[in-house]
Hints:
Low-confidence stretches: 1-33, 35-42
CATH architecture of the largest domain: Roll
Radius of gyration: 17 Å
CATH topology of the largest domain: Ubiquitin-like (UB roll)
Largest sheet: 5 strands, mixed
CATH class of the largest domain: Alpha Beta
Number of domains: 2
Structural class: alpha+beta
Mean pLDDT: 75
Shape: globular
Distance between the termini: 39 Å
Order of helices and strands: HEHEEEHEEE
Helix content: 10-25%
Amino acid sequence: MGADLRQLSELFSNHLKASEVEDGQHAVIQSPICSSASSSGSSIEVSVDYNGVVSALPSFPSTFTGLQLKSLAIATAGAGGGFQDYFLTLNALPFGARSRVSDHSGVVEGATLLRLVLEDVGDRRKAVGMT
């Protein structure tokens, strides 16, 4: 079974956690969305702008949801507080909290740079289910 999983991994150019295959029980296959090659072969850099300070995000899996990305952005920007204290947008549009980041309309094939914006919520209302 481990060999079949490795072949699938190579076929889809995904990363396979070999340590999880060695026990013969299961494997996690995830492909990165940033700091790696997209299907067009170009590298995608993702950064977050918080109060005018731009920070590069570390690599994360393409299976990340909007909420997971928001958590990473808050930590990377060194912002305090929780999810409810911030808006996270790309091209002025929020991410779906439980939707894959790659499903956002601002993530387009061939893009080499994604600039996220993290803003304090303040007195504004936030849509339920959105970042």
